[in-house]
Amino acid sequence: MDEIYIDFLNRPDVQALAMTDDEILAAVESSLATQGRGEAVIEPRVHLEPGVSRGHFNVLRGALREPVDAAGVKVVGDFIDNYTLGLPSELALLMLFDPRTGVPRAILDASGITDMRTGAVTAIGAKHLARHGSKVLGHVGARGTAYWNVRLMDRIFDFDEIRVHSRRPESRDGFAARLARDLGKPVVAKEDWRACVEGADIVVEASRLVAPEPLLRTEWIKPGALVVPYGTMSAVELSLTDIMAKVVVDDWGQCKGGKFGSLRAHVEAGKLTAETLHAELGQIVAGLKPGRASDDETILFWHRGLSLSDIALGHAMLEKARRLGIGQRLRYA
């Protein structure tokens, strides 16, 4: 057997790449279109709960055809008490393989990838499903993915008003200050959910709840708004889907099963089914199904997270790393 080497990008390497907003959005949008055309394989995520803390591992698997041409597996932890140890709640690794031979190609720190690709899917969903003139964003949650939600959506919409909220004052205040510095515009930290989301053109719910609790009230949603709830534990009322003209997801296979997810109760109650679902986002990006048709449509976009986005963004990072001479090569065989 010939020698086999694996490309390795650790966290400092990923940070050194300094991926631009446009590079992130392009990689993820391309993977969504590939998925929409049926040129990808995605397996529903599975979970591992170690049972020794408040947390679990997500294992995501998938494969993309050309131009990425890779299979991948990402393992990401979701441990809500990590902040007490000075650790991010989500730490992850992405492994890429040759889809024809199974030869391992690369290992990447995927904590940043998880944050970036989640923000990109939120932003691309908003690009296709929010009103074009959306100028007010209400964002609940300040975890790692939240930063990229706001940053990449603002890249597309250039908001006039950005409101953020999270449970801990130090978290929401620090989050608002970081965003204001990086975006070069005011970002307001709100003390409660209602003040943050009521009347907003785009509402994103990325909360960190221990158990399901309906904290986002349906009555606060502005007609014509886009609502993007994706907390692991549901924070929405069962009535939320009743006001929606369209419900869009990233992957129905993942959304219809499992124990976690913002609309889990809606699936179990029969409020969200394959028949009531409008489309997967990839079908809209690929031009196979329509996105927003009018300004008065109130739309919900639920995303659980795609292995395909991880694989595509990891591939884009590896290509940039090779151009810049960043990273290491590890002997495998």
Q: Can you walk through the features of this model?
A:
With 333 residues, the chain is α/β, with parallel strands linked by helices. It folds into 2 domains: 5-113 and 308-331, 2-Layer Sandwich (ornithine cyclodeaminase, domain 1), CATH 3.30.1780.10; 124-305, NAD(P)-binding Rossmann-like Domain (Rossmann fold, 3-Layer(aba) Sandwich). 32% of the residues lie in helices and 24% in strands. Strands 9-8-7-10-11-14-12-13 form an 8-stranded parallel beta sheet. The chain has a 7-stranded mixed beta sheet with strand order 2-3-4-5-6-1-15. Strand 3 and strand 4 form a beta hairpin. Helix 2 (21-36) crosses helix 3, helix 3 packs parallel to helix 4 (144-157) and helix 3 packs across helix 10. It is globular.
Any chance you could write out the topology, listing elements then pairs?
Blueprint: E1 5-9, H1 11-17, H2 21-36, E2 40-48, E3 55-64, E4 70-79, E5 92-97, E6 104-109, H3 111-129, E7 136-140, H4 144-157, E8 161-165, H5 169-183, E9 188-189, H6 193-197, E10 202-205, E11 226-229, E12 246-249, H7 252-255, H8 264-268, E13 279-280, H9 281-285, E14 299-302, H10 307-324, E15 328-331
